Amino acid sequence: xxxxxxxxxxxxxxxxxxxxxxxxxxxxxxxxxxxxxxxxxxxxxxxxxxxxxxxxxxxxxxxxxxxxxxxxxxxxxxxxxxxxxxxxxxxxxxxxxxxxxxxxxxxxxxxxxxxxxxxxxxxxxxxxxxxxxxxxxxxxxxxxxxxxxxxxxxxxxxxxxxxxxxxxxxxxxxxxxxxxxxxxxxxxxxxxxxxxxxxxxxxxxxxxxxxxxxxxxxxxxxxxxxxxxxxxxxxxxxxxxxxxxxxxxxxxxxxxxxxxxxxxxxxxxxxxxxx
Length: 275
Ligand SMILES: Nc1ncnc2c1ncn2[C@@H]1O[C@H](COP(=O)(O)OP(=O)(O)O)[C@@H](O)[C@H]1O
Ligand SMILES: [Mg+2]
What we know:
Radius of gyration: 21 Å
Distance between the termini: 51 Å
Number of helices: 12
Strand content: 15-25%
Helix content: 40-55%
Number of strands: 9
Order of helices and strands: HHEHEHEEHEHEEEHEHHHHH
Structural class: alpha/beta
Low-confidence stretches: 4-16
Bound molecules: adenosine-5'-diphosphate, magnesium ion
Largest sheet: 5 strands, parallel
Strand order of the largest sheet: 2-5-8-1-9
């Protein structure tokens, strides 16, 4: 993967614009702001689709800082974050990666699903996440000191990830951390209503259904239905799709490939919306 691909698929410098909607569940906004002001790195833990990415873009916009987001994957190396020499017009030129840009220019660097990345990435993160706040660029011989308005935020999902793919304590203990979960029902109803335009009453019914489906987790279901999927479901209903069809496409099919599990989920949905 080339750096420009990383830049276009994963890293976006978000201009200081109006903060995208984020409904706080607890005091996570205050925690983020304290961590930022005290120059501490932040670790967000939680299942997929519960608002981590939205939270980070909301906070970056609120603080008026550019956001450099990188979706980590198992091919992602330290050089994808720091930068590399590229051949451009017959010349080799050093091109900063998203992490280096955030350190040079100031801003928030968000490494989504950080445990997916190659091991050499932690080597880069360690000196940045202690009080030195340094980014050594071996290839250019530079040693960058992070400015006060640089912040590192990482996320991972402790639920589905393999024990081998958990964060090592020596890495984890460098971060201030916050767990994200599914929001309480009244908050989730408001989020789904706001995101989809579906009435609060009907969103309430969806959120109650989600609670029932989430109780079925464990029985061959790796993860409960996310807030994101509830927003999808409500969006399709608003667009005119029949409820049962919307529910199958958003609350059943994305969760499991297993016929029996799907049938169990559909039964719970029919008990709520059927007839
Ligand atoms: N607290 C929240 N405030 C606003 N929207 C939320 C919230 N939680 C979840 N969402 C909705 O769920 C979607 C998925 O959230 P996202 O931040 O992408 O999840 P994650 O990064 O945890 O996988 C968002 O696009 C948004 O529509
Ligand atoms: Mg995300």
